[in-house]
UniProtKB/TrEMBL annotation:
<feature type="compositionally biased region" description="Acidic residues">
    <location>
        <begin position="1"/>
        <end position="23"/>
    </location>
</feature>
<keyword id="KW-0806">Transcription termination</keyword>
<dbReference type="InterPro" id="IPR043425">
    <property type="entry name" value="NusG-like"/>
</dbReference>
<dbReference type="InterPro" id="IPR005824">
    <property type="entry name" value="KOW"/>
</dbReference>
<dbReference type="InterPro" id="IPR036735">
    <property type="entry name" value="NGN_dom_sf"/>
</dbReference>
<keyword id="KW-0804">Transcription</keyword>
<comment type="similarity">
    <text>Belongs to the NusG family.</text>
</comment>
<dbReference type="GO" id="GO:0006353">
    <property type="term" value="P:DNA-templated transcription termination"/>
</dbReference>
<dbReference type="GO" id="GO:0006354">
    <property type="term" value="P:DNA-templated transcription elongation"/>
</dbReference>
<dbReference type="GO" id="GO:0005829">
    <property type="term" value="C:cytosol"/>
</dbReference>
<dbReference type="InterPro" id="IPR008991">
    <property type="entry name" value="Translation_prot_SH3-like_sf"/>
</dbReference>
<dbReference type="InterPro" id="IPR047050">
    <property type="entry name" value="NGN"/>
</dbReference>
<feature type="compositionally biased region" description="Acidic residues">
    <location>
        <begin position="31"/>
        <end position="57"/>
    </location>
</feature>
<dbReference type="GO" id="GO:0031564">
    <property type="term" value="P:transcription antitermination"/>
</dbReference>
<feature type="domain" description="KOW">
    <location>
        <begin position="207"/>
        <end position="234"/>
    </location>
</feature>
<dbReference type="InterPro" id="IPR015869">
    <property type="entry name" value="Transcrpt_antiterm_NusG_bac_CS"/>
</dbReference>
<feature type="domain" description="NusG-like N-terminal">
    <location>
        <begin position="80"/>
        <end position="188"/>
    </location>
</feature>
Amino acid sequence: MSETYGDLEEATVLVENDDEAVEAEVAAGAPEEDSDPAAETDGEAGEAGEAGEEAPEGDQPAPGSPEAIEEFREALRRAPGEWYVIHSYAGYENRVKQNLETRMTTLNMEEFIFQVEVPMEEVVEIKGGQRKRVKRNKFPGYVLVRMDLTNESWGVVRNTPGVTGFVGNAHEPYPLTLDEVVKILLEEQPEEVSGKQKAPAEVKVLDFEVGDSVTVIDGPFATLQATINEINADSQKVKGLVEIFGRETPVELSFNQIQKNS
């Protein structure tokens, strides 16, 4: 009997030891079942990183805001050289720009002449009742040049084909102010900078030329024939000769009072 009890006690001890070993193994394996703290940390860091990547967007100045315009102004201020205005033959502004940019390179003047601009604007031309959206020179007969003024750079610009001179003193032209440059070039910038959704202005294209024969369709001279001898585009009027009682009489007529004879 004593041997039997001894065997039972030994078996009990073994079972208890086995239970403790199992518990120890479970306890040791517990961290494997839980989420990895390092992975959670990395995930949180990734989310924070994504949030950080989006943050700079909020730092960008709003279109047309004082900050956006000030950034544009500051970029102009930091650019080397000053802005000058040169005269050109009307209709040859883009040709002058191309000629001057070519001379800048061939004469190695890139360190003195930096930029040439022909300010443009979008308008809706009205001709013969038809509307057409086009881009045209905003300042006919003028071209803008950013440059360091020296005797050499002055000569390169002045002797460019199509250039008739500088605005200001012939030999000591005065540059535009920074405010003037910002006002002119800001209109050229995309909406993201200027903040303006530009609606093109409507302009009536002249459908008449000096020497044209027209019929007066309105006013006291209606139905009479006239010959145009002067056109004033600003006032939208023409001067012409109308035959009254067998004599040619000069009259002034608005564009909407006459119709071109076919």
